[in-house]
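Data card: per-record layout.
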Amino acid sequence: MKFRFLPLITLATSLSLPLPAYSENIEHTRQLLSTRQCAQCDLSRAGLVFAELAGANLVQANLVQANLSRANLQGADLRGANLVGVSFNGANLVGARLDGANLTGADLRGAYLTGASLQGAVMEGAYLQGAIGLAAEVGKVEDFYRWAIEDERQKNYVSAANNFTQVIERKPNFAPAFIGRSAARLQGGDLKGAIADARQAETLFTAQGDAKNAEIANKIATTLEKPPEERPKKGGGFGNFLVGLLGGALQLFLTRFPIPFF
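The structure for this 262-residue chain is written out next.
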């Protein structure tokens, strides 16, 4: 009978055992902030928002799910670091070395990546919308195109233009991206850029034997090149005029063009 309570005793004992710690390693965080030297440190889940870490040595550091939003990591060395689920939202990663780093599911939205090295980095599921200075070999063109169309739908025109630019850098002969960026630039107040994109779309459609869409691009550019008093104003100005030219809806026009995988 005295053994009847053995399972309960065993359970209570197991519950009293120390559990794995999920909070950040405070000592390593302090070391990083005071010296900027923290190779192979455990910085998982560390809160480093707005941290000044320019030139920091974080080689092979564990930064899983750390929050580095808006942090200054210019020129930092993150080679081989575990950056799964890290937030680099709006962070300065200009010139940073991220070769061989694991950026699976990392948030790089709005991050500055000009001159950053990402050779051999794992980018599966990374959020790249609005990333600035992203190398053309990073990211999937179809993702950028989808994000750009969604931005247009949400009237986020600056982000839409940026994502269309990412598409164009990867597929410079993809004419629909120029149409999309023309509309985004116009709504953002860049008339000159909108005209240039419409004309480039016309050139590409013509070269590809698509006379119908070349004519649409020509009409857009020609209308924009007219003096303001001669442009359509009925029903909300050029935005509605553009929708009419594209046969009912800009979204339908853009989504019917599959991204070429070559």
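Known properties of this structure: The chain has two domains: 30-135, 141-255. Residues 141-255 form a domain with the Serine Threonine Protein Phosphatase 5, Tetratricopeptide repeat fold (CATH 1.25.40.10).

See the next section for split statistics.
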